[in-house]
Write the structure tokens for this entry.
Amino acid sequence: MTHRQALWMAHIAAVLFGLTGIFGAVISGSAETITFGRAVFAVVGLLLILLWQKKPLIRGISLFKGAMLLLSGSLLAIHWVTFFIGVKVGGVAVATLGFASFPAFITLVDWIVFKDRITQREWILLLLVSLGLILVTPQFSFGDSGTIGLLWGILSGFSFGLLAVVNKRGVQGIDAMQVAFWQNGVVMILLLPFALFDMRFLSTIDWFYLALLGIFCTGLSHYLFVKSLEQLNARIAGMIIALEPVYAIAFAWWLFGSTPTIRMLIGAALILFAIAFSSSKKEPIKKNR
């Protein structure tokens, strides 16, 4: 695989991630049902990829890492459910921008829980994300659906930030596709009781959209992102994936006529700049031991 092919893979993954909110808006089921259906199809797709690559399903997972997979899968379920609620309530754009605040939450969790020192760069990240979210907020009123949707998106970003910290500190050493398979499996099991009643009301087109969401926007996108890391460093790949809100807003604008305001665009630009700024730090050169 060439460097250019890896860049294309990362960009396609970002586009697929950006389509997640669109599917959440057009599928008629509840947030819990959408999350359950997404996880089911993702598990099937990831299982096929693992079998094709002849990778193990369980080998290398200790009791501690199994517990961490259970925790991270639970956080992934919360992240997806809150995100889809945000989409249903406030629309694709504000929910996605609320979620895009997750790098700031990762910094705060590392600082509060693990006592990591916050650098000047990270304080700037927190400031820019905060200003961006203030500008993106439609109205400072709990009676406004856009504001409520943004708050659900921020909660989705917070749970994703916790998920990222658990992944970084708890499941290192496990193959990324293996992690994704088991995390989606946990999501599927947790959401089954909440989705059972609602599933009977899904139409054929809803099931088709769920299949696209699970197979392409979850299983395939994760595979492409992980595959791109064979040629790209994590910083560059992360900056490309950070374009997800741009694609999401563009799709919502094109498909639903959800024209963003100038204030929202400025806020979005601040959040995206903060993500790019936080990812621009040069990675230390690893020395052979």
In short: The chain has one domain: 3-279. The chain has a mean pLDDT of 85. Residues 3-279 form one domain. DSSP finds twelve helices and no strands in the chain.
